[in-house]
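Batch manifest, entry 17 of 40.
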Amino acid sequence: MKDIWRKPYHVVLEVENRDCTIVKRCASMGLTHFKVVDVRSSSRGSVKHLVELDSAEVKQVRNSSGELKTVASKSENKSSIWLESEGCGVCNAILSSEAFLVSGKSMENFTIMYSFLVPSFDSYKKIIYTLEAMGLKVKILKMGRFESHAGILTEKQERIFWLALKGGFFDYPRKIDTVELAEKLGISPSTLSEITRRGTRRLLEHYFSEQT
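Output type: structure tokens
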């Protein structure tokens, strides 16, 4: 694992982002009823946005781009599609600081809530400084630091599991897979799998020994 990930943080913040490329793109296509319900970094270096639209507007968007992937509708009148872009100033500020974006969700008045992981407090400060230097209003909702509990798992195993949990590795569907997580941490997928396998074994042995 990269040394920079020895003291990671999980950060959730709100930013008024009127320069979101996807919001602008939807507006340029005349879409008026849409909501950005998720934002994630891509292994290709781009940023993926899950946009919820009225079903009547989905055909209009698909005709303008063949890259779109339709997701299962949440209701009879709503459908969700993935849009991909190079990202805006906010996304790029987060991604350029050795951090990785877990998710994002649009609120009101162009405000988007971002959840991301940073390898250190200095990386967190760099992101906040960059956003404020851009003239953006930033509201910190949550900031949690990894702290080793020791005992059952090694510190490396604890840190990997913490990052995997916060990063959405155990979510369904997953927000980040083994290859992506390993790439972010600077280790091979096989090494990541071995660390999680050994850690899972330790947790199960401890759990079942406590039960008996």
